[in-house]
Specification:
The chain is an alpha/beta fold. 39% of the residues lie in helices and 10% in strands.
């Protein structure tokens, strides 16, 4: 009987790659998607498609409107504009959602403990990323220790482990792994603006396109027509 793994599945490129890696490792997949009032909530729709593609036994979508209520991020507050990346040197952009991965991993761990999963996968990267503090190795290491200390499974000697297989990979390396695994990138979206067609201008779109260029592959999702200028920038 295969062991279980919870995968934090956003419907984006990285978490979908984690689905492929967890499946290759032989785990039964239990994806968990968070609908937190994000501007790009189209991701939730795509997460459902990805879960269906992997034929998972159970896919749960958690309503977390509280994050939208407190705001503080361009992804959850309509009064804030999604920025177009520049060279201003800003370390943590306004698209940072306060404590998002801390909250997600806490809930994913609770779910894992209930269903008897031994791992929680999350698709964070500290290489090609937007500078979010909860995507760093220090955070993942600290969170794993917190899980060991703060769960019944942990204190009983059966700790739930965090798996962040993309942590030290560039976006191009991540995409090459996904292509090797045959993950359905055509069923994913990464755009922060959440439109029907990816904008190609936000930080997430640009990192994704940069990754596909580095991987020597064509991104299978459509972008806005004016994107060609940005692709060469």
């Amino acid at each position: 009987m295969a062991k279980k793994a919870v995968v934090v599945l956003s419907g984006g490129l990285d978490s979908t790659t984690c689905m492929g890696l967890a499946r290759e490792a032989g785990y039964d997949l239990y994806p968990l998607t968070f609908h937190y009032g994000q501007r790009h909530d189209r991701e939730v729709e795509y997460a459902r498609k990805v879960a269906k593609y992997f034929e998972v036994k159970e896919h749960r979508v958690v309503d977390m409107g509280f994050l939208r209520q407190i705001g503080g991020s361009a992804l959850t507050d309509d009064k804030m504009e999604v920025p177009v990346p520049d060279d201003s040197g800003e370390e943590i952009p306004s698209t940072y959602v306060p404590a998002r991965n801390l909250i997600f991993l806490s809930l994913a761990t609770a779910y894992a403990e209930v269903i008897g999963a031994v791992k929680v996968y999350i698709g964070v990267s500290a290489v090609d990323y937007s500078g979010y503090p909860d995507c760093r190795p220090e955070f993942i290491q600290s969170m794993e220790e917190t899980i060991r200390q703060g769960t019944k499974a942990g204190v009983n000697g059966n700790p739930i482990h965090l798996e962040a297989p993309l942590l030290h990979l560039s976006k191009g390396e991540t995409i090459r792994e996904g292509l090797r695994l045959g993950v359905p990138y055509h069923l994913t979206t990464s755009c922060y603006r959440g439109g029907e067609t990816a904008c190609g201008l936000c930080d997430s779109c640009r990192l994704r396109l940069k990754g596909f260029r580095e991987a020597g592959a064509e991104d299978p999702i459509p972008y806005a027509e004016h994107l060609e200028v940005r692709r060469d920038s």
